[in-house]
Amino acid sequence: MALIHAGEPLLTTVLIEAARRLRRYEPRWRELSASMAARRKAAGAIVGAVANRWLRGLFHQLKQVPAAACGEQGREVACV
């Protein structure tokens, strides 16, 4: 598994570092990492999978935020 080189390099770096920390400290991601390691997945692939699943979950959480909580009417820049 390889990461896509398109997009902002700084964002990719932050996501990978966040995934490494999630993998180390959060039980949910530690279990996912252990199950993938048991199937002989590469460490980079595991980190990429954790980053992908964490970011997708974050996206779906942000979709549920009401528009009024994101800012003024018409200026919903921070909302998805």
Summary, kept brief:
Helix content is 62%, strand content 0%. It is mainly alpha-helical. The protein has one domain (9-69).
Give the key terms.
80 residues, mainly alpha, 3 helices, 62% helix, 0% strand, globular
What this model shows, in words?
By secondary structure, this protein is mainly alpha-helical. It is built from three helices and no strands. The chain has helices at 9-25, 27-38, 43-63. Helix 2 (27-38) packs antiparallel against helix 3 (43-63). It is globular. The relative contact order is 0.12. The mean pLDDT is 86.
In helices, the fraction of residues equals 55-70%
Strand-pairing-aware structural class:
mainly alpha
Largest sheet: none
Secondary-structure element string? HHH
Uncertain stretches of 5 or more adjacent residues? none
**What does the radius of gyration come to?**
16 Å
**How is the quaternary structure best described?**
single chain
Tally of contiguous helical segments: 3
> What amount of the residues lies in strands?
under 5%
Q: Could you say which overall geometry the principal axes of the C-alpha atoms support?
A: globular
The end-to-end span amounts to 28 Å
**Rounded mean pLDDT score:** 86
Number of strands: 0
Count of structural domains: 1
Write the topology of this structure:
Blueprint: H1 9-25, H2 27-38, H3 43-63
Helix pairs in contact: 1-2, 1-3, 2-3
